[in-house]
């Protein structure tokens, strides 16, 4: 058990095997990893606990309420018992509360005149209290309208009574799991007001009454109400929820006639109504072409129903996925080592990722795992990790989704203790953000059967002995080389100076003698840019991201500029920075954002671009910039971006692959001309790389070429794939991955080429002008889907894309040779809502959605 003194008022102490650094820390993570508790990185803000082959037991002390600055409390997967301390209610800064998988008992504590309670946690977004022995009613006082809770997970307890109607007050909720309790009574009707809930689990309770009207739950995509004793007919309105994908209602007392209507959601893939008393089915013309299961209903005794409805054919929840090798042949390793996806022998750090509320109903789709692998590698990119491997995805009886994870070290055969601690800390402090479909998680690590720390000490001892024996020989050689060393020292100093400042012999205004030259790009001093941006004031700040901040400024000539200023931790090496400037200075096209200059002094790295006044394409499609794009204007934007990319691929010398095409990297000037921006990930193609470049996978999820991800071979066709996704964004105004749905699959599933506009009316952006003629839209969608073909060989080149869009514009009656003479004012730009070309939302620690969609920040 944890002694009371673990949460002290003294600054530093040691209790048994646990060292506590301060009572002012922000996180307590005692999550047992299957007998292996990984230490967190010691700091004045984070406690370090290290204990192997054990779990924590006993009660959670009331003095935990003394940690006023605590933001994360994670005590899951231990053997804690007794009640939840009411003093947790004093933790006003708490963001994450995870007490799952223990033996806690008693009531859920709420505040009163003399005691605190969980209802006081107004900053908390996560209540993970599943798999305990909590009992009694869910108190109505637990919820209030001031809460910002997004995950409420109380499943697998002993809770009774009704679902309190006060739950409907928490409008931020996105995941609700109350399944596997003994909850009674009807469902409260005001659940329909929870417009952000995506996953709702109520199975294995003792509910009664009919299914209420849930039409207000517009975000709902996964609804599970099995074994709940619900009665009456299934309301036809339930099937029209726009995002509903999975509906599980088996083993209830539902009866009457089933009618899914003619406006059921085109996302709906599975309806399971096994073992009810449904006696009739109003079948639509052509039948329901997805999975409908009516086994165990009286209707299956009739002869006039489609027989497939009366057989069990559920999604594959036990697939045999395993991460494939990355364009290499697996090698034979020793009995205790494993061949990684990059075909290197190593000792992996392994365990099980457990996702608590996934919206995935069909585990057989490999695309989910490709996205998960990419997000893992993105989280580990600053750690000593070479690759990751996923295998054996399954769903257990509690609908938890589990998948085996192996993490392979880089630069050595196994992780040392520092590496293990860093990797484990990514999971314990929830720094890793999985794709949205997967939901909240925890990681159960396997016991580590090796100790690289001990091996290092052993190797060091042997090295000392060998070094002492060879010392005399080395000393003699050093004496002989002393003269040579002195002779070369001067040249080394000169080279070191050049390394520290690679621009020292570079004339940015044009020189001679083979020195690299900049074309129309200027070297600015720090003081100049400081003056142009009003000392880098907040008033001049127009965006921020992982690279740093972006400032607006004005040159003495009156030309507006945008300055990307790198923060200290994002600085590149001098030569890398120089190479990027040389690359940018060589590309000149009206559909590419121009580099004005750079600054490399006083420890600063800044890039100066032309200022593009009307923000990003994403801002316009989302309505943020106030610019309204009709069909004609969208075609012009598509053509401009395509021309810019075709220039990079076919006319730049050497050819350049952008590698991060997305709607936030396409900017619109004052005449709504498209300009491709942000070349931070761009890759030039050398003479010996005309077919492909083998390189580390980088890009943005949703736009990333799956062939590039699988093979690590980058080609121009990788940009074509990303551009195809942008084309689909142009017609739908949807994000590439939105509430677990991939835009490519959404369009493919909704398409019917026998109907007008391919039957895409429901997913087209209303702002495109649905009431007007959309000539050429079908050809535009056809072209987009060819751009996102799985195989790069089947995708068109960007030059061909340009020609086809030009043909589509002629069909639409648009003059290709006429430049727009109107300014942004004619495009209905709302005053006070100006977009900025380098605006980028930062990736917050808190979740947004079930889990946020990742954003690559400015480079």
From TrEMBL:
A Pfam cross-reference name: PK_Tyr_Ser-Thr
Gene3D superfamilies: Phosphorylase Kinase, domain 1 (3.30.200.20), Ribonuclease Inhibitor (3.80.10.10), Transferase(Phosphotransferase) domain 1 (1.10.510.10)
Domain of life the protein comes from: Eukaryota
Binding annotation for ATP: 564
Transmembrane parts of this sequence: 460-487
InterPro entries (alphabetical): Kinase-like_dom_sf (IPR011009), Leu-rich_rpt (IPR001611), LRR_dom_sf (IPR032675), Prot_kinase_dom (IPR000719), Protein_kinase_ATP_BS (IPR017441), Ser-Thr/Tyr_kinase_cat_dom (IPR001245), Ser/Thr_kinase_AS (IPR008271)
Places the protein is found: Membrane
EC numbers on record: 2.7.11.1
Keyword hit for Plastid: no
Record's GO cellular component terms: membrane
Protein name listed in UniProt: non-specific serine/threonine protein kinase
């Amino acid at each position: 058990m944890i002694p009371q003194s673990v949460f002290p008022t003294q600054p530093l102490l040691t209790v048994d095997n646990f060292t506590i650094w301060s009572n002012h820390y922000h996180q307590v993570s005692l999550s047992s990893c299957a007998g292996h508790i990984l230490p967190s990185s010691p700091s004045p803000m984070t406690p370090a606990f290290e204990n192997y082959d054990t779990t924590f037991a006993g009660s959670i002390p009331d003095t935990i309420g003394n940690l006023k600055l605590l933001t994360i409390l994670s005590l899951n997967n231990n053997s804690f018992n007794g009640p939840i301390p009411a003093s947790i209610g004093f933790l006003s800064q708490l963001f994450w509360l995870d007490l799952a998988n223990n033996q806690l008992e008693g009531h859920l504590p709420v505040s009163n005149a003399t005691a605190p309670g969980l209802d006081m946690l107004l900053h908390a977004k996560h209540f993970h209290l599943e798999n305990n022995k909590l009992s009694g009613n869910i108190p109505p006082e637990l919820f209030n309208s001031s809460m910002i809770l997004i995950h409420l997970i109380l499943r697998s307890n002993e809770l009774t009574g009704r679902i309190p109607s006060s739950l409907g007050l928490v409008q931020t909720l996105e995941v609700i799991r109350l399944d596997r309790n003994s909850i009674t009574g009807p469902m409260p009707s005001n659940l329909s007001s929870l417009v952000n809930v995506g996953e709702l689990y109520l199975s294995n309770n003792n509910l009664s009454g009919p299914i209420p009207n849930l039409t207000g739950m517009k975000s709902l995509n996964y609804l599970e109400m099995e074994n709940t004793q619900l009665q009456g007919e299934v309301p036809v309105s339930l099937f029209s929820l726009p995002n509903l994908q999975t509906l599980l209602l088996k083993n209830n007392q539902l009866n009457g006639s089933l009618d899914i209507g003619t406006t059921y959601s085109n996302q709906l893939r599975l309806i399971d109504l096994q073992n009810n008393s449904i006696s009739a089915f109003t079948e639509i013309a052509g039948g329901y072409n997805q999975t409908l299961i009516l086994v165990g209903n009286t209707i299956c005794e009739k002869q006039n129903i489609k027989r497939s409805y009366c057989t069990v054919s559920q999604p594959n929840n036990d697939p045999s996925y395993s991460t494939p090798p990355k364009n290499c042949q697996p090698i034979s390793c020793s009995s205790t080592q494993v061949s990684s996806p990059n075909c290197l022998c190593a000792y992996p750090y392994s365990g099980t990722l457990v996702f608590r509320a996934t919206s995935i109903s069909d585990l057989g789709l490999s695309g989910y795992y490709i996205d998960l692998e990419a997000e893992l590698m993105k989280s580990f990119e600053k750690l000593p990790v070479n690759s990751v491997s996923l295998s054996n995805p399954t769903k257990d009886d509690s609908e938890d989704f589990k998948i085996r994870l192996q993490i392979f070290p880089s630069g050595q055969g196994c992780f040392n203790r520092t590496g293990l601690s860093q990797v484990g800390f990514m999971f314990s402090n929830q720094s890793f953000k999985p794709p949205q479909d997967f939901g909240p998680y925890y990681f159960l690590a396997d016991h580590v059967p090796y100790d690289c720390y001990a091996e290092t000490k052993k190797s060091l001892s042997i090295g000392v002995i060998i070094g002492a024996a060879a010392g005399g020989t080395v000393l003699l050689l050093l004496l002989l080389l002393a003269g040579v060393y002195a002779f070369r020292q001067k040249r080394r100093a000169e080279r070191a100076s050049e390394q520290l400042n690679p621009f020292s012999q570079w004339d940015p205004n044009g020189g001679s003698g083979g020195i690299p030259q900049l074309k129309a790009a200027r070297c600015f001093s720090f003081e100049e840019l400081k003056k142009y941006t009003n000392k880098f004031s907040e008033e001049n700040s127009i965006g921020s991201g992982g690279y740093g901040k972006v400032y607006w400024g004005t040159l003495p000539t009156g030309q507006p500029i945008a300055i990307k200023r790198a923060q200290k931790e994002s600085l590149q090496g001098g030569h890398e920075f120089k190479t990027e400037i040389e690359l940018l200075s060589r590309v000149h096209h009206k559909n590419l954002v121009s580099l004005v200059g750079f600054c490399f002094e006083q420890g600063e790295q800044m890039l100066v671009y032309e200022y593009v006044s009307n923000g990003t394409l994403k801002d316009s499609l989302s309505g943020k910039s106030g610019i309204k794009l009709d069909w004609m204007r969208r075609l012009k934007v598509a053509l401009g971006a395509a021309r810019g990319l075709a220039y990079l691929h076919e006319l730049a010398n050497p050819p350049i692959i952008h590698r991060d095409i997305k709607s936030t990297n396409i900017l619109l000037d004052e005449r709504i001309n498209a300009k491709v921006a942000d070349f931070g990930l761009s890759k030039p193609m050398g003479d010996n790389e005309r077919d492909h470049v083998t390189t580390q996978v980088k890009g943005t999820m949703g736009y990333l070429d799956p062939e590039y991800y699988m093979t690590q071979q980058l080609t121009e066709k990788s940009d074509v794939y990303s551009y195809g996704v942008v084309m689909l964004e142009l017609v739908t105004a949807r994000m590439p991955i939105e509430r677990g749905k991939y835009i490519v699959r959404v369009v493919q599933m909704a398409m019917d080429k026998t109907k007008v506009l391919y039957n895409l009316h429901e997913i087209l952006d209303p702002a495109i002008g649905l009431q007007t003629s959309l000539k050429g839209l079908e050809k535009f969608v056809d072209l987009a889907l060819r751009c996102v073909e799985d195989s790069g060989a089947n995708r068109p080149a960007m030059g061909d894309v340009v020609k086809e869009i030009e043909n589509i514009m002629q069909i639409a009656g648009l003059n290709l040779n006429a430049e727009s003479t109107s300014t942004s004012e004619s495009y209905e730009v709302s005053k006070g809502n100006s977009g900025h070309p380098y605006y980028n939302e930062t990736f917050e620690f808190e979740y947004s959605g079930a889990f946020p969609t990742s954003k690559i920040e400015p480079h």
